[in-house]
């Protein structure tokens, strides 16, 4: 059975940077109080990139994809599978993956979206890996992309300070050398209410609440427990120890969750990739953006053992262990 090898990555962030102070000043005009100190202390976030009005998830995804293809040294025509993980698709249908396929000028391969909120990228990566292992695809583009700012309630200081927009992508190719070694996904739908955007469109009108709502403390606790268990599970599946991991690339939601997780897993801070300070939580884009940043600044090298982890609404979680 072939392995799925990561042969390229790319990331794209919309150019508009909004610092905590910018955001605090904006919210103050509506009598909503927050501060740089509060946001940094509770989350580690210093700034986020926000898409301008009219910029879509497929546009960010396409730019990240172009960079990943360039990095991999392949053409869009070589792709036989495109999966986009997003909770903020351009349209109800067609999928954002089909829009990206058209924008890249690729044609004929499978293209579809995966919806697992902030776990979306690890869900999509695991799905693409299964296609490659089964011989149903040879070269896959896996993207996490969001314009999450479009589903935030900018009058809710408990959530609007936490998120940002962006896209990250990887190219996978079938190879007889590892590759993705193990992956495990999980969900607990009974926890759907702790993190949701429970709206819908029906007969041309929004039904329900289209904004993200969150019970932050419940999410915090479930994130830490599910990710700890998930990390141990994939290590056992692959027959490696947590000590063997060169780099932990966790979902970038909150520095306190990341630090807590690193301590529980015994992975020292210097082997944990952190971008939450610069990007905030970009949902499905956070893991591929962090992976891409650490590949391109030279930290993650060929041969390194990397654990990627996602967690988010659903409630969902997952881990992927990969030999770069
Ligand atoms: C959201 C989170 C940062 C809030 O931190 P917390 O320590 O739990 O804070 P609380 O929600 O208990 O709120 C504490 C106080 O800060 C206030 N507060 C909330 N947001 C604020 C903001 N942006 N600025 C200033 N004060 C704020 C609250 O109103 C509350 O005030 P009160 O004590 O007067 O009622 C934290 O729960 C968290 O990180 N959860 C995980 C969220 C996450 O990662 N989600 C995505 C997962 S994919």
Question: What distinguishing features does this structure have?
Answer:
Peroxisomal Thiolase, Chain A, domain 1, alpha+beta, binds coenzyme A, 2 domains, 324 residues
Task: Summarize the helices and strands and which ones pair or pack.
Elements: E1 3-12, E2 17-19, H1 20-28, H2 36-43, E3 47-49, H3 57-72, E4 81-85, H4 96-104, E5 110-114, H5 120-133, E6 139-146, H6 157-160, E7 166-175, E8 180-187, E9 195-196, E10 199-202, E11 205-208, E12 213-214, H7 216-238, E13 247-250, H8 255-265, H9 276-279, H10 286-296, E14 305-312, E15 316-323
Parallel strand pairs: 4-5, 4-6, 13-14
Antiparallel strand pairs: 1-7, 2-3, 6-7, 8-15, 9-12, 10-11, 14-15
Helix pairs in contact: 3-4, 7-8
Bound molecules: coenzyme A.
